[in-house]
Structures are given as structure tokens and as C-alpha cells.
DNA sequence: CTGATGTTGGAATATGCGTTTCACACAGCG
DNA sequence: CGCTGTGTGAAACGCATATTCCAACATCAG
């Protein structure tokens, strides 16, 4: 039996497949060895080129690749390709990120109605969102954001509804660090009046997610008009608070049963604050020395 | 001329396309803007999912995506997808797995001076905290907490300083779900007066971490004296707000460079809210049926 | 209100894909 | 030398996909 279709014990990750190939390499036929080499050497190509392209690149027939995949227990070559795609998405964080995302979505798709393991879903979803955050927000963005805070004479913070917790955290923490901070909390309907005091040397940190609160959008526009810098934390690069911003930090929150989370945003906010804390302390010690 | 097929000056890289979208975003039609947002926000999906999947994810017809691509000068949507795939490749370009791990470890080892290092640490720390949360908080606890909320006539929510974001999130979300909620926000120093209205059929949700804010502790004591139930979210089972509580949800937050996080607490709060949402909707439908 | 212009959704179409099939090549063995 | 079983290549198949097309719809100027 040359082609055993035992889907059961097929390698479930790119790394597992790699080791499996190395084990069985000697027992493979010449052509299959040729493919094996290519699979080991060019995981990227395997991930996102079509079978036709791959087969041409390594001088093999498409059917041979299908045979190769089957000999390792996959129903077809596509399923094997998926492993490499998942690996590509995962970056260097956890293994099998892509697969976990898919698995997670599938699990959530069906309605268990248990209500109790909602927590488990959130833990999983937020974990994924955090991993994603670490990968999508660049070092440069963080550095620039910290610089914006550092240079500002006064930091204004605004965020309503769902964004309010994030904004309040930012305001509270910055104040704790002795940064001159004004939290636009909307109490007594004084939002506009509070924003109107912003000036060209100040920074407005605006937090808003879809659907974007009117007050926040207005605050951003007003701050921009008055010449202040704007740092936006949002879920889209084209959100109403992103256009006029000097810098946009893009957060993709997990969404569980139509409820979007905030854990990733809180995480980002906190990283921002602490990044600023270190920058500030460094500057201070430098000033003392000089 | 709605669809000009000018392949000549189409953006040649993912970044170019991004800026091109941002430029022309306002002049796009509603549906095309919807797609633009997705393209900007989910480059990974754009890279390796099929048109059918993408169109479903952002609630659009496949043909609309083709139109979008054509409006930016591509002959079809596939050509646009290629950009993102190439970008994905260059992003992780050539880094072997071992090399990536090494790079990551080096980044964590050195003292954090730029923001991204801090972010990476937080992502790691919060991930662990989330996992821990999933393991330590039992289903029974969650179910009981939900029951407490469900039975309460009015839910009072209190939390100051670092706990304020969590409390404000709880208050906002419960209110959204049409639960009668009173957020004790401490505005105008009316904390005591607000708590004094609590009664035996009400619930106080108190959020507090070390060092425990006086006002929160007082609020818990007062609520307990007045015969109300108390649900405490805290970092210790013997904290001042735990003693008098009907139920304590124990959250162990991650601590990075002496700054404690909030991601796990937010996660718990959200799970709580959604657990309640399901319980409420189930109850409602049951009432309708009976 | 009306017509013109641009936009949208969904069925129809055609292309390209992965997969299967089958004939052939080749080695092992009687 | 012929038979058998396995590996291989090329073409055919079926299918999913991207794409096209057209009718219905929204928008807006006059």
C-alpha cells in the first residue's frame, strides 16, 4: 500500500511536519525526497504560492506534491499548505497561532449556551488579541507615542463609552507619574469647554472604537484646529479620530459573541505609560548629571 | 467613467496601497470605504484568505472587493492580494525559527528604553495572567456571580484609582444591557450619599486592589450593614473588601516592573457581563415561552 | 417630481486550481 | 524473458474561485 490515507496521525504543525520529514526522509522515493528538500528549505513559498508555482519551482509535477502530502497523512496538499500559513501568521510568538484562531472561531461559532465557560472563551480570545498586539504595533510607533507624551506640556485624555475605562486608566496613570494631565471626563457637559483650553504645545490622547462617540471626534477636530498634537488609539486607521492624528496606534480587539474586548487596549495603554515613565526617569537623571 | 482600468499607476507595495487608500478614502463610496477599512485593518486576512471568506468577514459581496481593487488601478482583486502576500513574506523575511527566538530573547533581556520592549513584556505578562485567570476562577464562581447580578434589583458599582477603569467598564456595560445600574463615581464627593441609598435587594460590585482605597472599603462596609449583597473583585481573598462580601472573585494580575496590569480584571469583568447577558436573555425567552 | 448618474447586490460566467486518473517506466523476482 | 508491483508524468476532470454583467436601487440636480 503506497498511499495510506491515515489522516488521523498527520503532523499538526509546521515544526512537527519538519521533524516527521527528517525521520522518514531516507525511506522516501527519489522524487519525494526532492520535494521534501524544497518543503524544508522554502517554508514561505509552501505557505502562500499555488501548487502550480511550487511544482514548477522545484521541477516536479503537481501530482507529486499531492502524493507527498498524502504520504504524510494529509487528505490533500492544501491541508499541508495550511500548516505553513498558520506558522507564517504566528510569527515568533506562540506556535500554531493561525490554527488557534480558526479553532477559536469555530468553537465560538456554535452556541453552547452554557454561559459559565464564557470566561474561558474570553481568556482565549484576549490571549490571541494580545499576541496580535505585540506583532502589529511596531517599536517605532511606541517610541513615537512616548515621545509625543514626553514633549507635551499638558496631556489631555478623552474617551467615552466603551473607551472610557482605557482613557481613565491613562489619565490616572499619567497623573501618578507627575505628568500634567487633564482628563476630559464629560462631567457636567463641560467637554467642549475643557478641550478649548488645549494649545499648540499640548497633546490630546483620544481613545475611540466603532461606533465612534461624537464628543471624542469633536474633541480631536478641535484639538487639531488649535494646533495641538493628537495621539489616537483606535481600531481603524481611517476612523474619524485617525485622520487628524499625528500618530495612530492600531489595536485589534478580540470579539466574542459581538462583544468587543478591551484587554489589548488596556495592555497597550499600560505599556505606553510605563514606556513614558522610563523615558521620563532617564531624562531626569540625564538632567541631573548635566 | 466609474471603473478606469489604469493598471499603470497602481500602488506597487502594501504600504503604498495603504497610503493611497488613506488619501482617497473620503472620496470613496460607502461600501468601498467599508472595504477600505477592512483592508487597512486586516492585512493578514487580505494576504491569505480567499475573496469569499474576506467578503463574508466584512459583510460585503465579492464583486465589491473586485470593484475596490479596480478603482485603485489593479486588473483584479487577486493582483491586489499579491501585494499583501509579498508584504507578509518580506516582513518575516528569511528569519529562521531559531534566529527569531534568539532575537526575541535578546529584546526581553536588555533594559527597556524603547516602548516596544515594554509592550512585549506586557503582552507576555498579561498572557500568563489571563491563563491563570482561566484556571483559578471556577465556573461555579462565575455562575454565582452572574446569579447575584441577575437577582439584584439595582447594581451599584464602585472602584477608585487603579480599579476605576474596571468599575467604569462594568457600570457602562450593565447599563447597556438595561440592568438598573448606579455607578458610584465619586463625583462631587457624593460617594457616601450614593451608597446610602442601597438596600437589601441590591448588589454592590466592589473592585479594589492593594492598596485598597478607603472609599471603596467604606462602601462595602456600608452596603453590608444595610443588608445588601456584595460581590468583590480583588487581588486577595482576605482583602478589606473581601471579608464582608457574599462572593469574592480572585484576580491575580501580572506585574511588570512594579506596575500591575489590569488586563485580566477587564477580561473577568467582561466575561461577567456577557455571562449575565446570556442569563438574562435566556430568562427572557423562557418568560416569553411560559 | 423626474431624469440622470453613480452605486450596489446577486446571478451568470469563465478562469485557474487541486485533485484524480491512467498509461507508462522501471525495478525486483520467478 | 515475462510477470508483478511500485513510482512517475501528463492530461482530464470537477470544483471553487475570481470576475463579469445587468437589473435594481440610491443620490442628487434641475
Outline of the structure:
With 290 residues, chain A is of the alpha/beta class.
Describe the structure in your own words:
2 copies of one chain form a homodimer. Chain A has helices at 14-24, 30-41, 43-48, 51-57, 62-71, 77-90, 97-109, 118-136, 139-151, 164-176, 191-195, 214-225, 263-289, and strands at 155-158, 181-184, 203-208, 229-234, 247-250, 255-256, 259-260. In chain A, helix 7 (97-109) packs antiparallel against helix 8 and helix 9 crosses helix 13 (263-289). In chain A, the strands form 2 sheets. A 5-stranded parallel sheet of chain A has the order 2-1-3-4-5, with helices on both faces. Chain A has a two-stranded antiparallel sheet with strand order 6-7. With 290 residues, chain A is of the alpha/beta class. Chain A has 13 helices and 7 strands. In chain A, 46% of the residues are buried. At the A-B interface, helix 3, helix 6, helix 8, helix 9 and helix 10 of A face helix 1, helix 2, helix 3, helix 6 and helix 7 of B. The structure holds a DNA duplex (30 and 30 nucleotides).
The neighbouring-strand order within the major sheet of chain A is 2-1-3-4-5
Q: What distance separates the N and C termini of chain A? A: 79 Å
Radius of gyration of chain A (Å): 25 Å
Helix run count of chain A? 13
Order of helices and strands of chain A: HHHHHHHHHEHEHEHEEEEH
Shape by Cα distribution of chain A: elongated
Number of strands of chain A: 7
Largest interface, C-beta closer than 8 angstroms, per-chain residues: A-B, 70 and 74 residues
What is the SS-derived class of chain A? alpha/beta
Mean residue pLDDT of chain A: 83
> pLDDT below 50 for ≥5 consecutive residues: which ranges of chain A?
1-8, 92-97
Oligomer: homodimer
Residue fraction in strands of chain A: 5-15%
The percentage helix of chain A is 55-70%
Largest sheet of chain A: 5 strands, parallel
